[in-house]
């Protein structure tokens, strides 16, 4: 089983994460930010990741540090759980619909961090959370995990649906890319021999 536990403590947040990549979607999420909890529950469920997250953040300021730091810590958890990445499929992509919304999400777990995020949210807030923090979450995750992540909104009108399509799409591509290809179970999926 590919599992990891991460404890990240700064002056702004205290985060505890446990992750099982080979799970069934069981989760217990408490970030203190309701909308982020909703997105992370979707991520765990649709990616079939067992995921527990507890965060005590400086929400008296705003949700920025909490959202960004959870992205960083969750990226670290995936990186740790994947280890040397032997046998993984490495790549994943999906066009994910959510009512009027369609979103493209593509990932390469090849060790180089990059985020291309092409989307605008019609509403400035998702619940009490600024919609601009969605990008900050994905930036923190991609940087810390060392992944190449592309998220592009094809079309959409509802900010909640747009965010939901992104997180569900991200869940599905991470599930696929982290899954084991039995044809190369003892090999690194790179011509370099290392990721």
Automatic annotation (TrEMBL):
<dbReference type="InterPro" id="IPR020565">
    <property type="entry name" value="ImidazoleglycerP_deHydtase_CS"/>
</dbReference>
<dbReference type="GO" id="GO:0000105">
    <property type="term" value="P:L-histidine biosynthetic process"/>
</dbReference>
<dbReference type="GO" id="GO:0005737">
    <property type="term" value="C:cytoplasm"/>
</dbReference>
<keyword id="KW-0456">Lyase</keyword>
<dbReference type="InterPro" id="IPR020568">
    <property type="entry name" value="Ribosomal_Su5_D2-typ_SF"/>
</dbReference>
<keyword id="KW-0963">Cytoplasm</keyword>
<dbReference type="InterPro" id="IPR038494">
    <property type="entry name" value="IGPD_sf"/>
</dbReference>
<comment type="pathway">
    <text>Amino-acid biosynthesis; L-histidine biosynthesis; L-histidine from 5-phospho-alpha-D-ribose 1-diphosphate: step 6/9.</text>
</comment>
<dbReference type="GO" id="GO:0004424">
    <property type="term" value="F:imidazoleglycerol-phosphate dehydratase activity"/>
</dbReference>
<comment type="similarity">
    <text>Belongs to the imidazoleglycerol-phosphate dehydratase family.</text>
</comment>
<keyword id="KW-0028">Amino-acid biosynthesis</keyword>
<keyword id="KW-0368">Histidine biosynthesis</keyword>
<protein>
    <recommendedName>
        <fullName>Imidazoleglycerol-phosphate dehydratase</fullName>
        <ecNumber>4.2.1.19</ecNumber>
    </recommendedName>
</protein>
<dbReference type="InterPro" id="IPR000807">
    <property type="entry name" value="ImidazoleglycerolP_deHydtase"/>
</dbReference>
<dbReference type="Pfam" id="PF00475">
    <property type="entry name" value="IGPD"/>
</dbReference>
